[in-house]
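User: Could you go from structure to sequence for me? I need the amino acid at each position, not a summary. C-alpha cells:
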C-alpha cells in the first residue's frame, strides 16, 4: 500500500475542541468542517483543553487528560498538529456516525490523508470520534 497509517485504539484518535458541536439535525459537510477547523485552531494555539473537551467518550477513556491527549497528537499525528494547508473532501453520514476526508500538507510539503469520524451522542451533539492518518502515495509536492 505504501502509505503510512497510524491508529490509536480500536477506532482511532479523536481530535476535538469545546467550541462548535453540531446537533443531530444539522451535521452537514459544512458543520463537520467547521468543527475540524476549530480543532486545528486549538492545536495551533496549543490549547489542550479545547482540543480534548469534545473528544468522544471512547477517546477520553484512552487519555486521562487534555495534556496526555495533546502530547499524543503532537508526537504521533504531527501533520494534524501542525500543517501548511488543508483541503476537505467527501462527507458521509449514516445514522449515528459520519465521516469527513481531509488532505493535509505538512510543513515539509508531504501530503497526508486524514479520515475523521464523528459520533452522535445521546444529548444530540456530534463529537469527533477518530482520525486515521495516512501518508498519501507520491506524497511530496
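Assistant: Here is the amino acid at each position, in order:
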Amino acid at each position: 500500500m505504501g502509505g503510512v497509517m497510524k491508529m490509536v485504539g480500536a477506532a482511532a484518535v479523536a481530535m476535538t475542541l469545546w467550541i462548535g458541536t453540531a446537533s443531530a439535525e444539522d451535521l452537514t459537510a459544512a458543520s463537520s468542517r467547521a468543527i475540524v477547523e476549530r480543532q486545528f485552531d486549538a492545536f495551533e494555539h496549543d490549547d489542550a483543553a479545547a482540543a480534548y473537551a469534545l473528544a468522544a467518550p471512547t477517546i477520553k477513556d484512552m487519555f486521562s487528560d487534555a495534556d496526555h491527549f495533546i502530547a499524543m497528537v503532537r508526537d504521533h499525528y504531527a501533520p494534524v498538529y501542525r500543517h501548511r494547508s488543508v483541503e476537505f473532501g467527501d462527507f458521509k453520514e449514516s445514522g449515528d456516525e459520519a465521516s469527513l476526508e481531509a488532505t493535509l500538507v505538512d510543513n515539509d510539503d508531504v501530503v497526508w490523508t486524514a479520515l475523521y469520524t464523528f459520533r452522535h451522542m445521546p444529548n444530540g451533539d456530534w463529537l469527533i470520534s477518530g482520525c486515521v492518518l495516512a501518508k498519501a502515495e507520491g506524497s511530496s509536492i
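One structural detail worth keeping in mind: The CA atoms of residues 14 and 59 lie 6 Å apart.
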